[in-house]
Design a protein that fits this description.
1 helix; globular; five-stranded antiparallel β-sheet; mainly beta
């Protein structure tokens, strides 16, 4: 089975116990420039900022299972 990363919920703070969260969406399979949903703001983000944020502050990782080929 193969799973593709669809998005990551990150917290800019030091813990996931509360506060502010940002969702990075890999819309249309675009893993190089994800879309950030940050309260009322929606914007594209460039690497390596996203990788650093996800690797250090990733809280929830959302995957989609690829459909099996028949």
């Amino acid at each position: 089975r193969t799973f593709n990363l669809k998005g990551v919920i990150c917290t800019p703070g030091n813990t996931a116990g509360g506060g502010h969260y940002i969702y990075f969406s890999y819309e249309n399979g675009n893993v190089k420039d994800p879309v950030a949903y940050d309260d009322g703001r929606v914007y594209n983000v460039k690497q390596p900022y996203t990788n650093n944020r996800i690797n250090t502050k990733g809280y929830v990782f959302l995957y989609e299972k690829e459909k099996e080929k028949v």
